[in-house]
């Protein structure tokens, strides 16, 4: 499991500030298209330096109540990077999806 987590972390490190990717998108990029949940598990255990807050659900939903980098919500960190949200709390994926 460690090897796949390392591969996931290296991929997530490539997501630039102001952009997001879905769990499934990361899974496809590492040639493990049915492993979106594994990506989620990896993000829960992400070491410092991995921008786990840039990985969201495919519909742009963010994790509520989970703190990143010690004391910030996922939405707070994304907003600091200029990511916009719809009123329902989802990321505007058409503008911020990592390509």
UniProtKB/TrEMBL annotation:
<keyword id="KW-0227">DNA damage</keyword>
<dbReference type="InterPro" id="IPR052520">
    <property type="entry name" value="ATL_DNA_repair"/>
</dbReference>
<dbReference type="GO" id="GO:0032259">
    <property type="term" value="P:methylation"/>
</dbReference>
<feature type="domain" description="Methylated-DNA-[protein]-cysteine S-methyltransferase DNA binding">
    <location>
        <begin position="6"/>
        <end position="83"/>
    </location>
</feature>
<keyword id="KW-0808">Transferase</keyword>
<dbReference type="GO" id="GO:0008168">
    <property type="term" value="F:methyltransferase activity"/>
</dbReference>
<keyword id="KW-0489">Methyltransferase</keyword>
<dbReference type="GO" id="GO:0006281">
    <property type="term" value="P:DNA repair"/>
</dbReference>
<protein>
    <submittedName>
        <fullName>Cysteine methyltransferase</fullName>
    </submittedName>
</protein>
<dbReference type="InterPro" id="IPR036217">
    <property type="entry name" value="MethylDNA_cys_MeTrfase_DNAb"/>
</dbReference>
<dbReference type="InterPro" id="IPR014048">
    <property type="entry name" value="MethylDNA_cys_MeTrfase_DNA-bd"/>
</dbReference>
<dbReference type="InterPro" id="IPR036388">
    <property type="entry name" value="WH-like_DNA-bd_sf"/>
</dbReference>
<dbReference type="Pfam" id="PF01035">
    <property type="entry name" value="DNA_binding_1"/>
</dbReference>
């Amino acid at each position: 499991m460690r090897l796949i987590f390392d591969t996931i972390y290296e991929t997530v490190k490539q997501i630039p500030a102001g952009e997001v990717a879905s769990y499934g998108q990361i899974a496809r990029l590492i040639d493990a298209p049915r492993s979106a949940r594994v990506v989620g598990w990896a993000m829960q255990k992400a070491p410092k330096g991995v921008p786990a807050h840039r990985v969201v659900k495919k519909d742009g939903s963010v994790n509520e109540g989970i703190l990143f980098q010690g004391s910030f919500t996922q939405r707070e960190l994304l907003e600091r990077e200029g990511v916009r949200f719809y009123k329902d709390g989802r990321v505007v994926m058409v503008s911020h999806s990592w390509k």
